[in-house]
DNA sequence: TCCTTATTTTGAATCGATTCAAAATAAACG
DNA sequence: CGTTTATTTTGAATCGATTCAAAATAAGGA
């Protein structure tokens, strides 16, 4: 039951009509006389013709009606990382409305015959640039299709990109803890560089960190400074944005003489791991330790306790990106959207004692 | 910066070589003399030619290197439904290993120009048939591409399908509760028919239910019978597999004179909603009420308490499905894989009193 | 019946590459 | 230097449809 080798031309010949008419029967049935249409359809059925092959149509039409979402991550990333998943859900919503399909593309695999940036059959790309952004953009440029980069921390203004205001968002998070009265605060940072685990000295932030975590730290610092806290007074523990390194970071933070009363986590994922570590250690959130996340993924609303966080405008990001691709109206320069502080149950004033 | 309108033929002409040679420069560079290759590449660069257009190549080669995963659900389903997501993650893992791409396809949208089953550029389909299975299979058949149906509850043996042994799995779940000593048990069923919410009489199960929930109920009944419990003694509450209807079902169940001491939930998703309802009502799991889920999604391992469940062999399902599509070695008949009881913290013996 | 207008149908061109038998060129050898 | 063999290059056919100007046919009006 493999695809029959019957072509439109065969049907046309067998039905005694021109190929043009046969084509019309399938793609613009209203223009062909009913009697002819019926005959052609019958012949097609008899021959086992399954309708116009999409590949032929595509070559002519040039448009696929699908967008690719690419990241320098394995395919599993799109379905299990909370941030990616939330964004994909938002993108799915927009695509549903416009009848657009989604192809997920992993840019890790460079093999010739593999499905990758230059073989994906799509009308354009949305790039998730959390890591390896430059390379991803470079690869995509070659393809000469419209694309828009999300979460790109790159200065190059010629790249169409849509971002969030990490500095303001992070500052809002820190300010929230400070307003509650916390003064002994620690930062849980995220990154993919092995060197950036364990305690990170302030001067390394600008030298070694990717743009996104760097900006967030600057946002934190900004608010901390408003309350007279120096950079040195706030330890930064680096994680690899996964469970093991987060648990190790918590271990380090809480083996200090003066463990923090509040934690600024740079993602909800890390925040939730941290909460789990605290709960297992018998420390109560928010009574013993307050914690605030970043991103605003759905898990943050259902965790126990529900996580206070700074939410990204996922729906807005998705809407703008998809529209930009489909209408080929790419932003001329980098836009940064605002985040929103969402106060839930994981933050409270520090214990009186 | 739209895709340049430079074609391979233009490059060939400008470089003074035949189109065949130009093609070889890109797709089989080793056969063309270095000097010529360099010249052609230079010309290509100067003209702004971005390499062979994938659409042309496709038409010739016929193979896309991507599989489609389709469901009669919106696109968001693939990224936020726990079961779908877990399966997609498993499929992603297999595809990563073989350099295969994934396109997600919603079969809800029937519009002409929308991306759907017959316009998706893929080498084959994996169908998630939780609902509307027949229609989905029907649509896919027309496309004449290899496909395999998952979670299909259809008798038609001519459809290549891979399933799980719902009856045995459900029986194992029920047996677990019975062995713990529970005798007052309720079933939380799932479905998409509005008529099947609220209490469902046993005789309606065979008449109105889809195959998957029906089989699970039969599995439950089978184990219950082993312990002398009649069908009538075990209330079935129907849900639409979402939060509101699950909460309503719980409400109904626990407003009875003799509320259940244990719940057989037909999916982890519903089980988790039910646990939330119980927790909010001050009922402790598993001390006051035991609950067992179905599916074995990751959320079940991180919920509080961690959910006892019957786990599907997702990795195995994914491996077999993807291989079947890529190698066009579709199973001749329905296969049913075994499930595994995973005992965690949401089940315990009933209270002594 | 003849002319005009509306509706259908035709057939060749086109989309952008790959493929492969045959021709051309280069290298190797006695 | 002439043959034989190996390496490159050519050019036309092919993949499977859509498109559109032009031709054919049908319908309407006087």
Structure characterization notes:
The structure is a homodimer. Chain A is an alpha/beta fold and about 350 residues long. The first copy, chain A, folds into three domains: about 10-60, lambda repressor-like DNA-binding domains (434 Repressor (Amino-terminal Domain)); about 65-165, 3-Layer(aba) Sandwich (Rossmann fold), CATH 3.40.50; about 165-310 and about 340, 3-Layer(aba) Sandwich (Rossmann fold). Helix content of chain A is about 45%, strand content about 15%. In chain A, the strands form three sheets. A six-stranded parallel beta sheet of chain A has the order 2-1-3-4-5-12, sandwiched between helices. In chain A, strands 7-8-6-9-10 form a five-stranded mixed beta sheet, with helices on both faces. A two-stranded antiparallel ribbon of chain A has the order 11-13. Chain A is elongated. Chains A and B meet through helix 4, helix 5, helix 6 and strand 2 of A and helix 4, helix 5, helix 6 and strand 2 of B. Chain A binds a DNA duplex (30 and 30 nucleotides) through helix 2 and helix 4.
């Amino acid at each position: 039951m493999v695809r029959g080798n019957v072509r439109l031309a065969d049907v046309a010949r067998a039905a005694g009509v021109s190929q043009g008419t046969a084509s019309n029967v399938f793609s613009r049935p209203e223009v062909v006389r009913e009697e002819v249409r019926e005959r052609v359809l019958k012949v097609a059925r008899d021959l086992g013709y399954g309708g116009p092959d999409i590949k032929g149509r595509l070559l002519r039409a040039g448009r696929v009606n699908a967008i690719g979402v690419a990241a320098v991550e394995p395919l599993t990333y799109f379905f299990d990382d909370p941030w990616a998943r939330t964004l994909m859900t938002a993108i799915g919503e927009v695509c549903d409305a416009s009848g657009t399909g989604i192809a997920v593309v992993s840019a890790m695999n460079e093999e010739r015959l593999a499905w990758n940036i230059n073989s994906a059959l799509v009308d354009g790309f949305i790039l998730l640039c959390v890591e390896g952004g430059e390379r991803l953009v470079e690869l995509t440029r070659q393809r000469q299709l419209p694309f828009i980069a999300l979460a790109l921390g790159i200065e190059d203004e010629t790249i169409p990109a849509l971002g969030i205001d990490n500095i303001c968002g992070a500052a809002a998070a820190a300010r929230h803890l400070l307003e509650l009265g916390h003064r002994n605060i620690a930062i849980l940072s995220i990154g993919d560089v092995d060197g950036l685990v364990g305690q990170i000295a302030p001067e390394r932030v600008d030298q070694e960190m990717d743009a996104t975590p760097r900006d967030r730290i600057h946002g934190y610092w900004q608010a901390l400074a408003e309350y007279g806290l120096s950079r040195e007074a706030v330890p930064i523990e680096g994680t690899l944005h996964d469970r093991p390194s987060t648990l190790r970071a918590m271990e380090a933070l809480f083996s200090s003489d003066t463990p923090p009363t509040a934690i600024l986590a740079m993602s909800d994922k890390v925040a939730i791991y941290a909460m789990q570590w605290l709960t297992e250690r018998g420390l109560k959130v928010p009574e013993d330790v307050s914690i605030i996340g970043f991103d605003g993924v759905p898990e943050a609303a259902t965790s126990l306790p529900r996580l206070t966080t700074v939410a990204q405008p996922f729906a807005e990001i998705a809407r703008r990106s998809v529209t930009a691709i489909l209408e080929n109206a790419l932003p001329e320069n980098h836009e940064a959207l605002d985040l929103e502080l969402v106060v839930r149950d994981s933050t409270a004033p520090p214990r009186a004692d």
